[in-house]
Amino acid sequence: MSFSGAVQWWDEWQLRVLVLGSLFIQYFLFFSSVVRRWVLPSWLRMFMWLAYLGGDALAIYALATLFNRHKQLPANGSGLEVLWTPVLLIHLGGQHAMTAYNIEDNELWTRHAITAVSQVTVALYVFCTSWSGEKRLLQAAILLFVVGIIRSIQKPWALKN
User: Fold this and answer.
1) Phi-psi category of 102—alpha, beta or left, where left has phi over 0 and alpha has psi -120 to 50?
2) What does the angle CA 17 – CA 123 – CA 28 come to, to the nearest 5 degrees?
3) How many separate domains does the chain show?
4) Cβ atoms within 10 A of the Cβ of 98, count?
5) Of 49, 59, 77, 52, nearest to 120 (Cα)?
6) DSSP structure class, residue 39
7) CA dihedral 129, 135, 140, 144 (to 10 degrees)
8) Could you tell me the residue range of the domain that residue 44 belongs to?
9) Minimal CA–CA distance to 101: which of 159, 14, 146?
């Protein structure tokens, strides 16, 4: 496989890899939230910490990739890709059982609230710019957006309380 072939493959599969990577991190955080209070090896704690910090970054990068893809190829598209926007918003909401990795993170609830508002705004903007006008997708997207907005608000609320 040549370098140009690898670049072409990445251009085609980048969004799928990023969404699946974000989903994998969410699953990892879900399962590690159960065991994080146990005595664990330091390498596993390091992976949990990296997943906690990197999960949002990966979902934001996937959201930006989705925005750029539809900016380059406006709404001609891959119909179900538009539903990845609210799914990524759900990923940005994080896991219910692990709102903060350290207790000191609770003091940063205002920053998380402002971040949640900006993430919801960006996700809605990306959805509006990439939506093709199909009504069935709109109904599913509204349902997923409601879940994503609630999840995004729950994290700063839990940190505050």
Assistant:
1) beta
2) 45
3) 1
4) 19
5) 59
6) -
7) 30
8) 3-160
9) 159
| Cβ-Cβ contacts under 8 Å for 13 (sequence gap 6 or more) | none
CA atoms within 13 A on the CB side of 120: 19
Tokens of 84: 């990845």
Question: Over the stretch 118-144, which tens digit does the pLDDT of each residue have?
Answer: 888 888 888 887 777 777 788 888 898
Phi, psi of 110 (to 5 degrees): -70, -40
Please answer whether residues 87 and 19 qualify as being in contact, where contact means their C-beta atoms are separated by less than 8 angstroms. yes
Q: Looking at the chain, list the stretches that DSSP marks H as alpha helix, in order from N- to C-terminal side.
A: 3-35, 42-72, 84-93, 109-130, 135-160
pLDDT digits (tens, 9 = 90+) for 2-60: 888 888 888 888 888 999 999 999 889 888 878 877 888 989 888 888 888 888 889 88
